[in-house]
Design brief:
The protein has helices at residues 15-44, 53-78, 132-137, 174-180; strands at 12-13, 80-81, 98-104, 109-114, 126-127, 145-151, 159-171. It is α/β, with parallel strands linked by helices and 181 residues long. Strand 6 (145-151) and strand 7 form a beta hairpin.
Length: 181
């Protein structure tokens, strides 16, 4: 049996999160950049490049794609693929590798499972350890109250603060661990 891990790397994500980010890079390299090269070539055929909107637009897109490709490669190189099934987080403490039952001030409840940097699935309640909600509850135990900053419902770029109660902290479910693989 594999040894249990007790520390989480600074930058960690599940195998699933890593594959998804790698797929984004592959799409840029294998689909979007070749399509953009064709767009540039077609735009060149329109003639005078100094007044060619299509050409300028395609060149701007090329710069964006190269920038995104570079950033994704750097992110992938610095990220650790982490096996959350081999991780033992501190017992009863909310944070990566745990599920947290939360009660909002309006009485509604929700259970979130906190995984790595690039992990998230709204339907399963999986949130990234970098998400505001995960950061707000990190280190808390059942019975504690935390304050989370949530986007303003008016979408004006402002945030509102809400107190949430930690109802329970438990290990990740088999379903969440399977998702992460």
């Amino acid at each position: 049996m594999d040894a249990q891990l007790t520390t989480l790397p600074e930058r960690a994500t599940s195998a699933r999160g890593y594959r998804a980010r790698k797929a984004q890079l592959d799409k840029i390299v294998n689909e979007e950049m070749p399509r953009n090269r064709r767009d540039i070539q077609e735009a060149k055929e329109f003639g005078d490049l100094s007044e060619n909107f299509e050409y300028e637009s395609a060149r701007n897109r090329e710069r964006q794609l190269i920038e995104r490709q570079t950033r994704l490669r750097e992110e992938l190189q610095s990220m650790t693929v982490f096996d959350f099934s081999a991780y033992t987080p501190p017992e009863g403490v909310a944070g990566p590798g745990s599920s947290v039952s939360i009660r909002y001030s309006d009485g509604t409840t929700r259970t979130i499972s906190i995984l790595g940097d690039w992990d998230g699935d709204e339907a399963l309640g999986i949130v990234s350890r970098r998400a505001p909600l995960a950061r707000a509850v990190e280190g808390a135990r059942a019975g504690q109250v935390c304050v989370v900053q949530l986007p303003d419902p008016d979408f004006d770029g402002e945030f509102t603060e809400e107190e949430i109660s930690i109802e329970a902290v438990s290990p990740l479910s088999a379903e969440v661990l399977a998702w992460a693989r």
